[in-house]
Recover the amino acids of this structure.
């Protein structure tokens, strides 16, 4: 079986050699080249045609964000950001690289205990293997797709409560996302606008090290206040509440509840757990949106919401970086509609307006 070709972009010679060792030791992967700068990597791309790129953020000359933009514009290739720093400046570059088209961010397996080294090495190699299969296209990260007018209605699952019209005041919006999610979440929140009347709960699968930076970045580039959710607080409009690392985010009554119950779909936090709690607590007073991501997390949660009479939307294949989680929701009957990313916010605002006018 042909191995997955990896191009390493890392300015530190010591770390570059370490990454070559880690990646080369994985039976799925083969290092096809190593570059000390983004400029050198761009020169190697055409000649080496790697399947995936491991990209450092802090590089001499062109940084990781600028490199990602160039790669996605000139020769689109799956990119996994490999970063050791959680300093604010580097986190900003990392988050912007994700927005520019990088698919995932992982920690470098350096400066850790042996157990941590092994864990981070496995995570890096697994992410490289998985992301190599993602079909990226030129400037995909900046294209949220056309706005589609009219509903792309999906059949309801057996036993679901289907209302003739939306007439219940809506209370909470829940969003689930994974691979490709940071960029999609920013696009959605930006399109919802600063006057959006509902509190927002968000499950975004991400390595814990980068969670605080992601929250800070969200607050800086969207019209919303963004926070890591706290147990027992009451969600309010104008704020996005992000599930903390290794905790499920749920809603009970009018309060947030955090738990460390068993992982669902191999995820904690899990979008399915969040959506299921919204179905139990809010019924038809909730909205659920499932964006791009690998696997099936969130799908069963949307089914539960739909059974409870809530309105649910899955991102369409035409804009999802990875059409895994949304497809699972559609296949199981959990999505009332399946829409391109750019069409989701207008549809949500239309639904809210319909309820207010009822």
């Amino acid at each position: 079986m042909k191995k997955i070709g990896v191009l390493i972009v890392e300015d530190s010679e010591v770390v570059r050699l370490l990454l070559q060792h880690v990646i080369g030791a994985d039976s799925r992967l083969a290092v096809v080249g190593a570059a000390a700068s983004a400029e050198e990597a761009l020169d190697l791309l055409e000649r080496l045609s790697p399947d995936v790129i491991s990209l450092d953020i802090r590089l001499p000359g062109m940084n990781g964000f600028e490199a990602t933009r160039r790669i996605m514009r000139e020769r689109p290739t799956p990119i996994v950001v490999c970063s050791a720093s959680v300093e604010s400046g580097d986190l900003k570059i990392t988050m912007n690289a994700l927005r520019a088209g990088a698919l995932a961010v992982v920690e470098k397996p350096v400066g850790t205990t042996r157990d941590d080294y092994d864990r981070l090495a496995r995570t890096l190699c697994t992410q490289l293997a998985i992301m190599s299969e993602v079909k990226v296209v030129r400037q995909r990260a900046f294209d949220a797709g056309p706005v589609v007018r009219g509903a792309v209605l999906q059949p309801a699952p057996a036993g679901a409560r289907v209302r003739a019209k939306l007439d219940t005041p809506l209370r909470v919006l829940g969003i689930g996302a994974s691979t490709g999610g940071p960029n999609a979440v920013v696009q959605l929140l930006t399109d919802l606008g600063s006057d959006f009347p509902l509190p927002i709960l968000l499950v975004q699968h991400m390595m814990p090290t980068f969670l605080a930076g992601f929250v800070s970045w969200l607050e800086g580039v969207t019209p919303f206040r963004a926070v890591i959710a706290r147990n027992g607080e009451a969600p309010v409009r104008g704020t996005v509440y992000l599930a903390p690392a290794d905790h499920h985010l749920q809603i009970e009554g009018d309060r947030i509840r955090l738990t460390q119950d068993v992982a669902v779909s191999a995820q904690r936090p899990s979008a399915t757990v969040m959506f299921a709690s919204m179905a139990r607590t809010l019924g038809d007073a909730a909205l659920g949106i499932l964006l791009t991501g690998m696997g099936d997390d969130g799908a069963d949660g949307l089914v539960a919401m739909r059974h409870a009479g809530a309105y649910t939307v899955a991102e369409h294949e035409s804009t999802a970086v990875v059409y895994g989680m949304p497809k699972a929701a559609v296949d199981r009957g959990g999505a009332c509609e399946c829409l391109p990313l750019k069409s989701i916010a207008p549809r949500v605002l239309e639904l809210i307006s319909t309820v207010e006018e009822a």
Observations:
- The domain at 147-357 is CATH 3.40.50.180 (Rossmann fold).
- The mean pLDDT is 88.
